[in-house]
Write a structure and sequence with these properties.
By secondary structure, the chain is an alpha/beta fold. The protein has 3 domains: about 130 residues, no CATH class; about 100 residues, Rossmann fold; about 190 residues, no CATH class. It is about 50% helix and about 10% strand. The strands form 4 sheets. The chain has a 5-stranded parallel β-sheet with strand order 3-2-1-4-5, sandwiched between helices. Strand 10, helix 12 and strand 11 form a beta-alpha-beta unit.
Length: about 450
């Protein structure tokens, strides 16, 4: 019941948004076409199709219609704002570049305002639905947990905080279970569950220690009570795990890695290749000579700075950058710090705008780096931090990137504390486990925005 409601709400939200957005567009076209002297041009209806495509892309990138976020209204609203901002940006770019026909600016503004009104009404409607589901007990799935352990307590918190469930309590023989949460021992689970109208039992007990669990599961399902097993993998690894199936044999892995798939790696490499070629031919062909001349006029030394960095599987490669420092003996050992006297005047600007990284598109072209990935570290830093942070080398499973998930979330530049590096590693591993081409595009867009903000952590 819960999953059906989740799926229905997600699909309903998508259909309702698109339907009302199209109705607003068509209504405004009919309402203002006489006053604005709009003719029945086909390109206005083509624009509506583009509008729909851009809205679907924006909502997909920012996960607007994810099932779990429908219930978290703050996330639902925040992601809607992000998607709407992306929609307006893409539409303005499209209209600016679409030179075949012109569009009424007044009409476009009316449409943008109309869509805002529609989205506000829809989100208010879903706020009411969220409140209704939290108070409507009949729509909630009544669940109980078999056993009392850390896993069981964590699972109970999930049920209590989720509006789609009504947590009844624990079946356990443990004496440390709170009395108000205890609904029975392990002797009379089936009859007690029927009397309490429980729809699902989640067992945290090990079948190896309690072999009667399988018989109990069959008896419960015979009475239309779903029985689910919650394996405790914390005895092996204290983290989320991922299960693959080789035939009918389950294989437990420590993480999900989309880029382990050859198809995903091919898509990412093709994207890197096309993107780097475009940047090199359209931008670096004229930007590189200009920056090279400015660097030469500002200080003595070569235009480029080449340094060995740690790449995929910890293989070394020569990372290419514009030189931003005076020639010094510490460049291969010491990170740049705030107000670093080694940084030149031009170098400070290049670092703040990330322009010093532009030559790394050649590293991408030669398959040493990717557009998006963990930032490559100096060899000394890789050696040092790998001894201090247990998960540090996991990030080396991927090609390093010109930009990355950690960087656009504020973890770039100097790492003054070990905790800062641990957070960077945490974000890099999250990227590895959640990669998608849409995520790469999102990171690239955020990096582009940071160019205009002049990142405070870049020095």
């Amino acid at each position: 019941m819960k999953n059906k409601i989740d799926t229905f709400l997600r699909d309903f939200a998508l259909v309702l948004d698109i339907s009302l957005i199209n109705l607003v567009y068509l209504f405004l076209f009919q309402a203002v076409k006489w006053n604005l002297h709009l003719k029945f041009y086909p390109h206005y209806f083509f624009l509506l199709g583009v509008f729909n495509i851009f809205w679907i892309i924006s909502t997909r990138v920012f996960h607007v219609y994810q099932k779990d976020r429908i219930y978290r209204f703050e996330d639902f609203g925040a992601n809607t704002v992000k998607a709407y901002t992306a929609l307006v940006t893409m539409m303005l770019l499209y209209i600016f570049l679409y030179i075949k026909d012109s569009f009424s600016r007044t009409f476009i503004v009316y449409v943008f305002i109309g869509v805002v009104v529609v989205l506000l009404i829809n989100r208010s409607f879903f706020l009411f639905i969220n409140y209704y589901l939290k108070t409507k007990t009949s729509l909630k799935k009544r669940v109980a947990i078999l056993g009392y352990s850390r896993n069981a307590r964590g699972l109970s918190h999930h049920f209590i905080n989720n509006s789609g469930y009504e947590f009844v309590g624990f079946f356990t023989d443990r004496e440390n279970c709170p009395d108000d949460m205890l609904i029975g021992d392990l002797e009379d689970i089936l009859n007690r569950s029927i009397n309490l109208d429980i729809g699902a039992i989640y067992s945290t007990l090990s079948p190896e220690q309690y072999p009667y669990i399988y018989d109990l599961a069959n008896e419960c399902e015979g009475k239309f009570i779903r029985f689910l097993f919650v394996p405790d993998f914390n005895m092996f690894v204290n983290r989320k795990t991922h299960i693959d199936f080789f035939g009918d044999i389950p294989v437990l892995s420590l993480r999900r890695e989309p880029l382990e798939s050859f198809g995903n790696r091919a898509v990412k490499r093709l994207f890197d290749l096309v993107f780097s070629v475009l940047i090199i031919t359209l931008i670096l062909t004229w930007l590189l000579p200009i920056i090279a001349l400015i660097i030469k006029l500002d200080s003595k030394g070569p235009v480029f700075f080449m340094q060995k960095r740690s790449g995929r599987n910890n293989q070394e490669f020569m990372c290419l950058k514009f030189r931003t420092m005076c020639i010094n003996s510490d460049s291969h050992l010491k990170q740049a710090t705030k107000d670093d006297t080694r940084v030149t005047r031009v170098g400070r600007f290049l670092r703040r705008t990330n322009l010093d990284e532009m030559p790394q598109f050649f590293n991408v072209l030669f398959s040493q780096m990717s557009i998006v990935g963990p930032r490559p570290h100096m060899l000394k830093h890789t050696a040092d931090y790998s001894k201090l942070i247990s998960k540090f080398m996991i990030r080396q499973f991927l090609k390093p990137g010109i930009t990355g998930w950690a960087q656009v979330n504020g973890y770039r530049g100097q790492t003054e504390t070990l905790n800062q590096m641990e957070k960077r590693v945490e974000f890099d591993i999250w990227y590895m486990e959640n990669w998608s081409i849409l995520l790469d595009l999102r990171i690239i867009l955020k990096t582009a925005f940071m160019f205009f903000k002049l990142d405070k952590n870049a020095f």
